[in-house]
Specification:
The structure holds 2 protein chains of 2 kinds.
Chain A (H helix, E strand, L loop, with lengths): L28 H13 L3 H14 L4 H13 L3 H14 L4 H14 L2 H13 L5 H13 L5 H11 L4 H12 L3 H14 L4 H13 L3 H14 L4 H11 L5 H9 L2
Helix pairs in contact in A: 1-2, 2-3, 3-4, 3-5, 4-5, 5-6, 5-7, 6-7, 7-8, 7-9, 9-10, 10-11, 11-12, 11-13, 12-13
Chain B lengths: L23 H4 L12 H9 L2 H23 L8 H6 L5 H5 L3 H20 L4 H22 L6 H30 L1 E4 L12 E5 L13 E13 L7 E12 L7 E5 L2 E4 L2 E2 L13 E5 L4 E3 L9 H7 L1 E3 L3 E10 L5 E2 L2
Helix pairs in contact in B: 6-7, 7-8
The chains are: A mainly alpha, B alpha+beta.
Chain lengths: 257, 338
């Protein structure tokens, strides 16, 4: 009988699908792309990467899926892998501006500014416009210590009113140790999407970087109210409540980019 | 036409799979859609070592400099690659990179032997000779890989000299400066009991940059030039010229009251746990209060009349140049100095 135990004969015993969940057989690439987008908005980049891969398993011609994978690898701080993957994506879609911008961002994070500039220029020359390309442009400006970065980030926000854009700008500003600017951006994101736990979490991070411990605690608290199992916020709350001195923490702080 | 996703056989010419809807254009190609991932250790390493960000930039700078060198010297481009050049910093590494494993092992082994022997005999003529041979071997290893096609003797000599100069400027001079911060060899030209003529001790000049010397430390100090007059035979006094480098133990610090008699030393009325490095040499009778910013160090390695000890024993803080911690030579008395 072992040969037949996987046959779907007793369909009546199968649990009914959730109301919003489509039938597993009808889950297409779009479904997985939506799931990836949801995860991305929740700050679950590892899950988002998996969902993008699932979408690409169903439709390899989905350029947005390849670009999404590159962006998730960048968010997960896997820059050489992101560069490699964007190169692979560009072999399939040689004129894709998003993939070019992703590769430029990877080069920028790895410190190769010459390549980053060239690829960013290339991405902006491609047809169409997107917030991500301007976001990368702004990041390259920020990495080159040029004050023009804010205009590029503003341009990105003009092109796309989505709250994800200011949130990702804030994360970039945080990466380059500009928490006060990041706080301004994340506040804009929260004006648009006050129900997003991840935005509250990022605001808490900005505030704790600025030493606004009380405000940071409130932000993390709000994040936990919206998403009670938010591991990052829980950890930050623990850190804020039981602040302790340790040489490892000091070393990490010294060597942190 | 088989779908790459579900292996369903579709009709020829269709764009998407009839079963799963996957695109058949890219499905024809065997493309892996799962990106490569960095291991946890690799991510930690990248996070902890900010220099990895600049590695690519550094390599690009090296490649640019090499292109300049190649342009000037006409060096073959396949010999001087950034990977080879960066490996030249360790003799034999570039050979290993080029696949010459046996030669690489010999070079590295000989270099390591010469370098370690040179450090063992540091401060002696033999030590400098061995270090010089290590440097020559390093230059030879560079010429072995980079100058493989330079057959003209004159050009080869010029390039070897240039390699040596670059090595001295880039590797050995900075390394020597760093080493001298923690280990400066001091050689005894004359016997100064318990040290023999020819003994080499290592001095740490950085030992007292952040902290003050403490009683019990064996230090290297330099006496300020001064004359001590003692009663001599007849009408004329004897004059001792006190100067030069000495090694001895600190016995008391500023403010301490030291009395000495019958071979015993008392600091502030208590027997001192420390004795001079040559414990046989103690003044018969001495009473001294160590002045501000000075230390008491008996010049026990010298044969001085007791009247001079009063002057020679007070050493200002600024005259102490470092802590003596190791006897390097002779090898049969190799070990720490306490």
């Amino acid at each position: 009988m072992a040969r037949f135990h996987k046959l779907e004969l007793n369909a009546r015993n199968r649990p009914p699908p959730e109301p919003n969940e489509p039938d597993p057989l009808s889950r297409d690439a779009g479904y997985w792309m939506n799931k990836a987008d949801e995860s991305r908005r929740a700050g679950l980049y590892e899950s988002a990467l998996k969902y993008y891969s699932r979408a690409l398993e169903l439709d390899r011609s989905l350029a947005a899926g390849w670009a999404g994978q590159v962006q998730m690898l960048l968010q997960l701080e896997e820059y050489p892998e992101a560069e490699l993957w964007s190169r692979k994506g560009l072999e399939l879609f040689p004129t894709n501006g998003e993939l070019m911008a992703g590769r430029a961002q990877a080069f920028c994070r790895m410190g190769d500014m010459k390549q980053a500039h060239a690829l960013c220029d290339g991405s902006l020359q491609q047809a169409g416009q997107s917030a991500y390309r301007w976001l990368v442009r702004g990041e390259i400006m920020a990495a080159s210590r040029q004050d023009m970065d804010r205009y590029c980030f503003d341009k990105a926000q003009e092109l796309d009113a989505d709250w994800l854009v200011p949130l990702e700008v804030a994360r970039i500003e945080l990466y380059y140790r500009k928490p006060s600017r990041a706080l301004g951006r994340i506040r804009r994101a929260l004006e648009i999407a006050p129900e997003s736990p991840f935005a509250w979490y990022v605001q808490g991070i900005c505030q704790s970087e600025l030493g606004l411990t009380r405000a940071a605690r409130q932000s993390f608290q709000r994040c936990l109210e919206l998403s009670p199992r938010h591991a990052g916020a829980e950890e930050q709350m623990r850190r804020l409540q039981g602040w302790s001195w340790s040489p490892m923490k000091i070393l990490r702080r010294l060597f942190r980019r | 036409m088989q779908c790459g996703n579900c292996q369903f056989e579709n009709m020829p010419g269709v764009q998407t799979c009839g079963r799963c809807g996957a695109s058949l254009q890219l499905a024809l190609l065997a493309i892996d859609v799962h990106p490569p991932r960095a291991s946890r250790a690799a991510k930690q390493w990248r996070r902890w070592l900010p220099g990895t960000r600049y590695w690519r930039r550094f390599r690009a700078a090296v490649a640019g400099a090499l292109a300049g060198v190649r342009g000037i010297t006409g060096w073959p481009s396949d010999l001087l690659t950034p990977g080879v050049c960066l490996r030249m910093i360790v003799p034999g590494w570039a050979q290993r990179h080029a696949g010459r494993t046996v030669r690489a092992r010999w070079m590295f082994g000989c270099y390591l032997g010469l370098l370690l022997s040179g450090l063992l005999f540091l401060g002696t003529g033999l030590g400098w000779l061995l270090l010089g041979l290590a440097l020559s071997l390093h230059a030879a290893s560079i010429m072995d890989i980079a100058g493989a096609r330079v057959l003209d003797f004159q050009r080869r000599m010029i390039y070897s000299g240039a390699a040596m100069l670059v090595l001295v400027a880039v590797v050995y001079y900075p390394a020597g400066q760093l080493l001298s911060l923690v280990a400066t060899p001091q050689r005894f030209n004359l016997a100064a009991p318990p040290f023999e003529a020819g003994d080499v001790v290592l001095v740490n000049p950085s030992a007292y940059r952040r902290s003050d010397p403490q009683p019990g430390d064996v230090v290297h100090y330099r006496l300020s030039p001064q004359d001590a007059r003692v009663a001599g035979p007849g009408r004329y006094p004897g004059i001792y010229r006190l100067q030069g480098d000495r090694v001895d133990r600190i016995l008391a610090q500023a403010g301490d009251k030291v009395t000495c008699g019958q071979g015993k030393l008392f600091v502030n009325g208590r027997p001192s746990p420390w004795l001079p490095i040559n414990s046989r040499q103690l003044p018969d009778r001495l009473e001294i209060t160590v002045p501000e910013n000075c230390y008491l160090i008996f010049p026990s390695t010298d044969l001085l009349p007791p009247a001079v000890w009063q002057i020679a024993s007070i050493v200002p803080r600024g005259r102490i140049s470092g802590r003596v911690y190791w006897r390097n030579q002779p090898l049969w008395r190799f070990g720490s100095i306490r």
